[in-house]
Every structure is written in structure tokens, then in C-alpha cells.
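Is this the right way to post C-alpha cells for a design question? Let me know if I should format differently. Anyway, here goes:
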């Protein structure tokens, strides 16, 4: 009786699997039939997402061609679907297509899907991509190999630590560190002397992740000659190595190493875990080094920074938490006046060695200067004048004008919140004036302060999850730290995640 029941159950499950497979093939056929007829981005993305959950190699066949599409939203949707397979037969088709594919855009999309899905497939197609003439493919292949479960292929990544393309050198350090491979140690120590700060940043981070006592001396040596934000990065790696809490006090690190180098052993992971709480305590005990910039309680030793200020309509609203902001300190308790006052204080205190720029954004994005300038007395005066003239655009006070027909004067359309546009402009991914995308990633900027009070309502992307993904992808090569300051009533999770994914600090100024 039991045997008969089990046989019946297997037949039912088998029939269900066949029906499910049939449904998957059917949706792929429908996609082939209709996708080319869709012209607007939203419908094309929706059509691609209809394939989500279809576990068949046919999905790879139809979406691989979409990866060459010129619309980033369409390509992003295709990668989302291709990275969500649960069935190994479907994910295996990605490796098969990658092996036969030579188009750069398609290879990039396939590699991104393989990395995000952490698929276990043959290593050979990925290793082949390490030799691709396109540096973008080489870089993406490193990430895919680092994410791939299975045998260790870290030896293949070592030569790429000396690749001619800086982005590939960064990716190699990061990939080896992600694998926990000690093969990263020698090239990363050599990378501390690289001419480009982005590469040095990746080397510093790798030496903090793959812990070895022989990295302490070279990091301290580099700390003594480094300037700006990388001093903080080195301090973080030294703390990860030793558990010591000297922060950016180079002289204390040097004394510690001079006294203990000949007998020092790294603390175990358990010992290190017990010292984590001391780091926060030490941060309060040590004052920032001379010349550090402070903005809304966030200190940075950076010498190349950008301040982004939200001037959308809601910025004219007064703060609710009045106890936190004394009226005597500000012209009014309007958010814009508080922000302008604090920004002016920071500008006035900038060290002359700092290069800085300002961005104000609502619907449109506006730069103070085309590029960062030195914080000399003339530029600081100009920046202060520009800051004092900032006003909230199209706020609630303008709604009366709109109600009586003076829509142009109210400029409500100009007062929306184009968060994505502001961040892409700041990272120099998009030139807002020319509305053109830029592939340049070796930018001088290393730190952003981003202040906003509202939920994104305008721009190419308005969904906060989409913006987080876009910023993370753009910043993989740029390596800019983004500090975020939130003021207002909207949910703060977006601003917190935006800071965390770049290694920045989040500050909540209240409502």
C-alpha cells in the first residue's frame, strides 16, 4: 500500500515538474514574440521581469542578447533575472554562453549575473575572460571568480595585480582579499606605492582583510607619507590587524611598532573581537588631526571633497525638533537656513590644502564650480556668497502662487528631489549639462557629504533601492566615501545604507 502511494506521489510530482517546465518554455516563447514590439523603457523592463522565476536555459538565450541593449534600466533588469536562478541547469547555461560569446557588453552582463548569483559552474570561461582585451571584462571576471564557490583559482588573479589598467589592479586586490588568499600580501604591499590613490586604497583595504604581521610596518611607512582620506583608511586597516586604537595618530603607530616589532604577534580573531568596543571609545578620546574637516559632526582628513545640498521645495519647512536647534544660532528654523549656516561654518574653516566643490540640487543639479578648487581666501569667499544665495525651490510657500495661476513664478516643478542626478553628477558619471554618460573613473574626489531631507521624486531613478544599486556600481571604481546627513521626516534607511555601502558615516539631524 505504501509502495503504491509513493509511486503515485512521484508521478504527481513528475507531472507538476513537467507542467512547470512547460510554463517556463511558454513564457520564453511569449517573450520572443512580443519583446521587440515594445519601445518604452518601463514596458521593456516589465517584460523582462516577467521571466523571473522561469528556470530554463531558454531565459539565458533570450536575455543574453538583451545585455547588449543601450538602455541601462533594461540591461539591469536582465542581469537581475539572470542572477536569480535556483536551478543549476539554468545557471549552467550562463557559463556555456559566456564561453562562446565575444561581444564585450554581453560578456559583462553574463559575468555580473554569475558574480551576483555566486553560481558554481566551470572555471574555464571565467579564466578565459581574465585574458580579454577589454579591461572591463577582465575586472568583472575577477569578481565572478572571487564569488564562485568551489576550487581556489586565486593564483590566476595574482598577475592582474600588476595589470596596466588601474581598475583591474583594484579588482585583483579586492578579489584576492575576498577569497582570503595570502597571495594578495606581496602585491598589495607593493601596491601601497602605486601612483593612483584608488589603487592604494584597494591595497590598504586588502592588507586589513588578509591579516599578516608583515603588513604592519609597510602600512605605517605609508601612513607617514600619505595625505588626506587614505590616512584614515590606513588607520582602519592597522586597527583590523592589531586591535590597537591609535586612529590617525601616526606618531603613536610608529612608537608602538618601534617598541614591539621584533616580538609582536597578531591577536587571534577572538582576541580582536574583544577589543572592538574599544575602537569607539578611542575615537572619542582622540581629537581629529590638525587640518581635518568637520561637517555636522563628521570628521574627515580628506583633501578632496564635495558638498551636496538639497534645495528642493521641502527644505523651506521648519524643523520639528526645535530643542535641537537654537533659534539664536540660525536666521530661522527653516531647514535650508540651518543647512546654509552649517555649510558656511565648514567652508570658513577649510584648510588651504583642501580642494572642494559644492552642488545644489532640486529638479536640476547645479555646481558652484566646474571642478574642485583650492580653499584659498578668494575661493572660500566665493563659495560663501554662493551658499548664502541658496533658496528652497518651489516650496509650500509658493503653492498660493500656483493656486492663483502663477505656476511659472511658483516653479513647483523645479522643486522636486533629483537624488540620483545629484549623485551621478557628483561621481562624474553623468554630465548634467550635456546629459552624457562618462566612463572616466579616475576622479580626484575622494569624499562626499550628501545632505537631503526628502524622498527622491525626480530623475532617471526614483526608487531608493535602484539608486543604491546604481551608486554602488558607479562607485566600485571611484572608491569615494559618501557621508550622508538626513534632516526631515522621511524614512532614513536609504541615507543610512547609502553611507554604509561606501564606508561613510550617517548622521540624523532629526525632523
Amino acid at each position: 500500500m505504501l509502495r503504491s502511494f509513493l509511486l503515485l506521489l512521484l508521478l504527481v510530482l513528475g507531472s507538476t515538474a513537467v507542467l512547470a517546465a512547460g510554463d517556463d518554455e511558454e513564457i520564453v516563447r511569449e517573450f520572443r514574440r512580443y519583446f521587440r514590439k515594445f519601445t518604452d523603457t518601463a514596458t521593456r523592463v516589465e517584460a523582462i521581469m516577467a521571466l523571473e522565476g522561469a528556470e530554463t536555459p531558454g531565459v539565458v538565450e533570450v536575455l543574453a542578447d538583451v545585455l547588449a541593449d543601450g538602455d541601462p534600466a533594461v540591461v539591469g533588469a536582465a542581469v537581475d533575472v539572470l542572477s536569480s536562478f535556483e536551478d543549476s541547469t539554468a545557471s549552467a547555461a550562463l557559463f556555456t554562453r559566456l564561453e562562446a560569446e565575444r561581444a564585450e557588453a554581453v560578456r559583462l552582463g553574463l559575468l555580473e549575473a554569475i558574480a551576483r548569483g555566486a553560481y558554481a559552474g566551470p572555471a574555464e570561461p571565467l579564466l578565459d575572460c581574465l585574458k580579454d582585451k577589454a579591461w572591463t571584462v577582465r575586472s568583472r571576471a575577477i569578481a565572478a571568480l572571487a564569488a564562485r564557490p568551489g576550487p581556489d583559482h586565486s593564483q590566476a588573479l595574482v598577475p592582474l595585480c600588476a595589470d596596466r589598467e588601474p581598475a583591474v589592479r583594484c579588482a585583483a586586490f579586492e578579489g584576492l582579499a575576498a577569497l582570503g588568499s595570502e597571495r594578495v600580501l606581496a602585491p598589495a604591499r607593493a601596491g601601497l606605492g602605486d601612483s593612483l590613490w584608488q589603487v592604494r586604497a584597494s591595497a590598504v583595504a586588502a592588507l586589513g582583510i588578509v591579516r599578516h604581521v608583515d603588513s604592519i610596518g609597510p602600512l605605517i611607512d605609508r601612513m607617514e607619507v600619505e595625505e588626506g582620506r587614505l590616512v584614515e583608511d590606513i588607520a582602519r586597516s592597522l586597527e583590523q590587524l592589531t586591535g590597537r586604537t591609535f586612529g590617525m595618530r601616526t606618531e603613536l603607530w610608529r612608537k608602538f611598532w618601534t617598541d614591539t616589532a621584533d616580538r609582536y604577534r597578531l591577536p587571534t580573531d577572538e582576541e580582536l573581537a574583544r577589543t572592538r568596543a574599544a575602537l569607539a571609545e578611542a575615537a572619542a578620546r582622540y581629537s581629529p588631526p590638525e587640518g581635518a574637516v568637520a561637517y555636522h559632526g563628521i570628521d574627515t582628513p580628506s583633501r578632496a571633497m564635495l558638498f551636496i545640498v538639497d534645495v528642493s521645495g521641502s527644505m523651506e519647512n521648519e524643523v520639528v525638533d526645535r530643542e535641537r536647534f537654537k533659534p539664536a544660532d540660525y536666521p530661522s528654523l527653516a531647514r535650508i537656513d540651518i543647512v546654509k549656516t552649517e555649510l558656511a561654518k565648514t567652508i570658513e574653516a577649510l584648510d588651504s590644502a583642501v580642494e572642494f566643490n559644492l552642488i545644489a540640487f532640486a529638479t536640476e543639479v547645479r555646481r558652484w564650480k566646474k571642478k574642485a578648487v583650492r580653499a584659498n581666501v578668494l575661493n572660500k569667499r566665493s563659495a560663501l556668497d554662493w551658499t548664502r544665495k541658496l533658496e528652497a525651490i518651489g516650496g509650500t510657500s509658493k503653492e498660493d502662487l500656483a493656486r492663483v495661476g502663477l505656476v511659472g513664478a511658483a516653479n513647483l516643478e523645479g522643486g522636486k528631489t533629483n537624488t540620483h542626478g545629484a549623485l551621478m553628477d557628483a561621481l562624474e558619471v553623468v554630465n548634467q549639462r550635456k546629459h552624457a554618460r562618462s566612463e572616466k573613473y579616475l576622479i580626484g574626489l575622494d569624499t562626499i557629504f550628501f545632505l537631503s531631507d526628502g524622498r527622491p521624486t525626480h530623475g532617471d531613478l526614483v526608487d531608493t533601492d535602484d539608486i543604491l544599486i546604481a551608486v554602488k556600481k558607479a562607485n566600485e571604481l571611484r572608491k569615494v566615501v559618501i557621508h550622508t546627513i538626513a534632516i526631515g521626516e522621511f524614512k532614513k534607511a536609504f541615507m543610512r545604507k547609502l553611507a554604509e555601502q561606501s564606508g561613510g558615516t550617517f548622521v540624523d539631524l532629526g525632523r
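Format looks fine. Someone answered above. Worth noting: The CA atoms of residues 198 and 337 lie 36 Å apart. Confidence is low (pLDDT under 50) at residues 1-20, 397-412.
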